[in-house]
């Protein structure tokens, strides 16, 4: 029995799901259109991408001093800083803050980093309930799904799907339209905002000089979780920092435009510690490494510039067909294809970089100019260097190389292929093949190779085909 | 302070520094989208256009009498209203903002808002703005204990009273203003608000008013 991996099989079944790719296509097309429209205002987009790249590189190139400056300033402002090397540590710190304060219910705004560390499940096991408050995240939490896109987590669900989920889980009895469903979620979550004693958010950017950080949301839930409960905890990847508040301004210009086609998100919160008598009395921040320091030391360090805008997912021809669910982690699309092997280890995600046509659209669109397609190719190279391919790949690649290097072997192989396929073909087409070659005929017919190769035709006739 | 994560980073960067890293500060001015030297009326015009395009309503008013009339128009009977930043508004309007409210509404004084059932039951919040940004059509709020930050979030609708001299051209002007402000007054919390609360999480259909106010009225006092 051939050992193929789960990722491969899920890719195939996602491709078979026409309704999924229809949903993805229409949503992602709109997302791209909105981005293109608003980016026209930038005039020379290239210049802005260069600037954004320089801003991110600048912070990464002095990440140690940026982080020291940031934490010193934040502590001065009254923030409790916690460092976590691993997901496990970050989860434990969070649980401890909750337990020390007798918290059993937490409201949370959308945050990829909490998905990365599996925070909700960890806290659930400790009998602490986390309520997702971003509408998309709330829906998928009720449905027990993973986010299918880093910016649009519920993009795989239709209005009818959401209606069904709300009926089953929160006793919804209204009509199946987005407006009424949103109202129902608002009502449900307002009670949670009122009662929860602790709020958690991710961090879009931290600013070293002022020791502050931003949370961007369109719905306003980021404002709630960071302002209403008595205890607020931010969790940030250690690379999400810029040196100066001017740099923040430029990146905010880019994030809104590239993520959702807005000049800026509806709400941008700047948090910098507790204020007397207004807002939370305890402000905590976890700074997480979880493999990032290893990435910084590797040849893939450019991926740390990523601002999680999702633009590379929106343009990716593969993502548009398969969606984000089948990736073996919370990140998906081109940025996920680079990040997942680095965060999870090559062994667990070796096939992810293969789900790529190397068309380079992602690299073209990325606001911080990450060479995503080059990195994906390099990761494939690493996987094959590490001899991670299956036995078939290990045997076939050297043989393939030999055959292709010798004109004689190559033309013999072509002839053999025709001979072998002939009995399986019908009027010049092969419709079924066994085993691995069957992966081809499962999705399309294979034409029977011509009797004479193009090369030999030219030799025989003495020249190439002439224009009629 | 001994921190293993920072030590590891420092070590990595020593062995493998980033080459030809240009200093972004040198070209930061080119990140500007709106020229600094726009005239006052140009800034107000651009601000209004962009605020409207992201879903806010903008009203240009001449004096307190016009303000009183506008409030009477926006605020229909029985609404429960709170004012944040009343002192600052009072100073600028030379009038108590609460006195400008229509008689039929219920004014909830700030100290009552400590009570969640009052806070979550607000129909309308009136606030001043700390700044406004023409580039994005945003207003910036600075909250503190005299200016409870949740008022403008829990209400169903938010009315901001703004003066043209508070409008800066570009996000970069906002950041220089904020830098100064944070130094002089570190005890504020800041929020940039660029329109009503919205979502497109269900089939990309736009819905206004998810968690925050579903309506944002920006009143520009042009006297
Ligand atoms: S890799 Fe670039 S385009 Fe993709 S999410 Fe990150 S910043 Fe956006």
Ordered list of secondary-structure elements with their pairings:
The complex is a heterodimer of chains A (468) and B (223).
Chain A: H1 6-16, H2 18-39, H3 45-61, H4 63-76, E1 80-84, H5 87-100, E2 105-108, H6 112-116, H7 119-125, E3 129-132, H8 135-143, H9 159-170, H10 178-195, E4 198-202, E5 205-207, E6 212-217, H11 221-227, E7 231-237, E8 241-242, H12 245-260, E9 267-271, E10 282-288, H13 292-297, H14 311-315, H15 319-322, H16 333-344, H17 346-349, H18 361-365, H19 372-385, H20 391-405, H21 407-421, E11 425-426, E12 429-430, H22 438-443, E13 446-447, H23 454-461
Parallel strand pairs in A: 1-10, 2-3, 2-4, 4-7, 5-8, 7-10
Antiparallel strand pairs in A: 5-6, 6-9, 11-12, 12-13
Helix pairs in contact in A: 2-12, 3-12, 16-19, 20-21
Chain B: H1 4-15, H2 24-27, H3 40-53, E1 57-61, H4 64-74, E2 80-84, H5 86-93, E3 106-107, H6 116-119, E4 124-128, E5 131-133, E6 138-143, H7 151-154, E7 157-162, E8 167-168, H8 171-184, E9 189-193, E10 198-199, E11 207-208, E12 215-221
Parallel strand pairs in B: 1-12, 2-3, 2-4, 4-7, 5-8, 7-12
Antiparallel strand pairs in B: 5-6, 6-9, 10-11
The complex binds iron/sulfur cluster.
Provide a compact summary of the structure:
With about 475 residues, chain A is of the alpha/beta class. Chain A has 23 helices and 13 strands.
Give a verbal description of the structure.
The complex is a heterodimer of chains A (468) and B (223). With 468 residues, chain A is of the alpha/beta class. Chain A has helices at 6-16, 18-39, 45-61, 63-76, 87-100, 112-116, 119-125, 135-143, 159-170, 178-195, 221-227, 245-260, 292-297, 311-315, 319-322, 333-344, 346-349, 361-365, 372-385, 391-405, 407-421, 438-443, 454-461; strands spanning 80-84, 105-108, 129-132, 198-202, 205-207, 212-217, 231-237, 241-242, 267-271, 282-288, 425-426, 429-430, 446-447. Chain A has a six-stranded parallel sheet, with helices on both faces. A four-stranded mixed sheet of chain A has the order 8-5-6-9. Chain A has a three-stranded antiparallel sheet with strand order 11-12-13, with no helix packed on it. In chain A, a hairpin with a 4-residue loop joins strand 5 and strand 6. In chain A, 48% of the residues are buried. The mean pLDDT of chain A is 91. Chain B is α/β, with parallel strands linked by helices and 223 residues long. Chain B has a single domain (36-221), classed as NagB/RpiA/CoA transferase-like (Rossmann fold, 3-Layer(aba) Sandwich), CATH 3.40.50. Chain B has eight helices and twelve strands. In chain B, the strands form three sheets. A six-stranded parallel sheet of chain B has the order 1-12-7-4-2-3. The longest helix of chain B has 14 residues, at 40-53. The mean pLDDT of chain B is 92. At the A-B interface, helix 2, helix 3, helix 4, helix 8 and helix 10 of A face helix 1, helix 2, helix 8, strand 9 and strand 10 of B. Strand 9 of chain A pairs antiparallel with strand 9 of chain B. Bound molecules: iron/sulfur cluster.
């Amino acid at each position: 029995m051939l050992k193929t991996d789960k990722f491969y099989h899920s890719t195939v079944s996602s491709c078979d799901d026409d309704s999924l790719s229809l949903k993805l296509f229409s949503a992602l097309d709109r997302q791209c259109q909105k981005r293109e429209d608003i980016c026209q205002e930038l005039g020379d987009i290239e210049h802005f991408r260069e600037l954004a790249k320089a801003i991110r590189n600048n912070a990464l190139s002095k990440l140690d001093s940026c982080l020291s400056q940031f934490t010193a300033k934040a502590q001065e402002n009254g923030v409790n800083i916690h460092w976590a090397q691993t997901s496990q540590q970050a989860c434990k710190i969070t649980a401890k803050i909750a337990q020390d304060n007798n918290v059993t219910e937490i409201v949370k705004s959308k945050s990829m980093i909490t998905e990365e560390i599996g925070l909700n499940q960890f806290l659930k096991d400790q009998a602490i309930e986390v309520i997702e408050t971003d509408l998309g995240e709330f829906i998928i939490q009720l449905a027990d799904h993973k986010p299918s896109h880093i910016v649009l987590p519920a993009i795989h669900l239709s209005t009818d799907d959401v209606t069904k989920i709300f009926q089953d889980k929160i006793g919804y009895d209204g009509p199946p339209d987005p407006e009424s469903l949103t109202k129902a979620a608002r009502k449900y979550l307002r009670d949670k905002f009122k009662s929860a004693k602790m709020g958690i958010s991710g961090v879009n950017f931290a600013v070293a000089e002022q020791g502050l950080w931003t949370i961007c949301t369109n719905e306003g839930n980021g404002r709630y979780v960071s302002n209403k409960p008595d205890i607020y905890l931010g969790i940030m990847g250690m690379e999400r920092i810029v040196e100066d508040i001017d740099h923040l301004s430029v990146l905010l210009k880019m994030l809104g435009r590239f993520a959702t086609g807005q000049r800026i998100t509806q709400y941008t919160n700047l948090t910098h510690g507790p204020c007397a008598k207004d807002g939370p009395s305890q402000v905590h921040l976890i700074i997480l490494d979880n493999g990032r320091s290893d990435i910084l030391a590797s040849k893939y360090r450019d991926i740390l510039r990523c601002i999680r805008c999702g633009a590379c997912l929106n343009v990716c021809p593969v993502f548009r067909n398969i969606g984000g669910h089948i990736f073996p982690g919370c990140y998906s699309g081109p940025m996920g294809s680079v990040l997942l092997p680095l965060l999870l280890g090559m062994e667990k995600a070796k096939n992810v970089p293969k789900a790529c046509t190397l068309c380079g659209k992602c690299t073209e669109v990325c606001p911080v100019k990450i060479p995503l397609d080059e990195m994906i190719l390099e990761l494939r190279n690493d996987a094959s260097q590490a001899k991670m391919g299956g036995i078939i790949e290990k045997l076939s690649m050297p043989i393939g190389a030999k055959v292709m290097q010798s004109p004689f072997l190559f033309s013999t192989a072509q002839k053999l292929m025709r001979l072998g396929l002939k009995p399986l073909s019908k009027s010049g087409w092969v419709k079924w093949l066994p085993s691995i070659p069957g992966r081809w005929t499962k999705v399309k017919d294979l034409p029977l190779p011509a009797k004479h190769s193009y090369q030999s035709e030219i030799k025989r006739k003495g020249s190439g085909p002439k224009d009629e | 302070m001994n921190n293993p994560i920072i030590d590891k980073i420092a070590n990595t960067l020593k062995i493998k520094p980033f080459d030809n890293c240009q200093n972004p500060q040198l070209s930061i001015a080119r990140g500007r989208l709106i020229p600094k030297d726009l005239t006052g009326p140009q800034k107000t015009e651009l601000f209004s256009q962009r605020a409207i395009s992201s879903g806010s309503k903008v009203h240009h008013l001449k004096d307190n009498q016009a303000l009183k009339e506008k409030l009477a128009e926006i605020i229909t009977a029985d609404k429960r209203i709170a004012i944040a930043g009343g002192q600052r508004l009072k100073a600028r309007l030379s009038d108590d903002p609460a006195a400008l409210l229509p008689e039929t509404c219920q004014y909830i004084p700030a100290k009552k808002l400590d009570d969640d059932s009052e806070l979550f039951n607000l129909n309308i919040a009136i606030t001043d703005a700390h700044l406004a940004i023409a580039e994005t059509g945003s207003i910036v709020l600075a909250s503190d204990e005299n200016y409870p930050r949740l008022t403008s979030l829990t209400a169903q609708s938010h009315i901001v009273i703004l003066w043209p001299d508070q409008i800066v051209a570009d996000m970069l002007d906002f950041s220089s203003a904020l830098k100064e402000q944070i130094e002089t007054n570190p005890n504020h919390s800041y929020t940039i608000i660029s329109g009503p609360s919205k979502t497109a999480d269900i089939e990309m259909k736009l819905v206004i008013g998810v968690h925050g106010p579903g309506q944002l009225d920006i009143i520009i006092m042009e006297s």
